[in-house]
């Protein structure tokens, strides 16, 4: 099965502030805020929803196609994707701009201040001609360029191809009517519980109304696991125990990769979500969204410990 993953490619630039933001922000002067935080250093990691999901899928012996845009500084990321044997046929490079970048500063209380430069993500991607592809394929539409997300949903529907819709952190750039149009016909709507609530508020829908447009709703809930909602029949999939939580940031993207791997194997939905939970456990045990590592055999063994045998 050919898998297409759309969304963002970004450099995550992570900084640590050895103090407390609250000690340097005067509430009575918030309207004229002018503050500088001296950091301990900067670490650059590869990130972005599309890149994160594709990376974990590569660990699970899949070679998904990333549908995204990148800038003129993409060479380091490109080498990393190549090292992980990920095809770059549908990554469009935009000259004269930078690849999207998140600049994240964290204080001693784990409070974060983030600045995000969309860079190349502001430009539309070159979209695959799904209608001309006779092979079995699935499409994951993740947070990225809104025009791409809407166009990909249209292409998937017209080609009769299964697609997953995940608005994620892009919800702030949507209008309710656009969301209602984009999600229609999706095989699965996936989000965290906060994003689901916001999506329903923005669309003016209830969960029952969402069921009329998508077959499945998967809602992640961090350490509580996820809810698999099949037209109102809800199943709680527990999170997989971890050795140590170092960084929960990439857990959601790793979960999506495990879910997609299961669906590509034509596993039952409950098993797909369980596979997502196992993949997420690997991610939170490492610092960064593409720092974890596993082999397919070890993944299957960890799944078996938690959920029973997996036909690998």
Automatic annotation (TrEMBL):
What high-level taxonomic lineage is stated for the organism? Bacteria, Pseudomonadati, Thermodesulfobacteriota, Syntrophobacteria, Syntrophobacterales
The record's keywords, sorted A to Z, are: Kinase, Transferase
Annotated GO molecular function terms are: kinase activity
Record keywords: Kinase included?
A: yes
Protein name in UniProt: Carbohydrate kinase
Protein's organism = Desulforhabdus amnigena
Q: Where is the Carbohydrate kinase PfkB domain?
A: 40-291
Query: Transmembrane stretches, by residue range?
Result: none
Report which superkingdom the organism of origin falls in: Bacteria
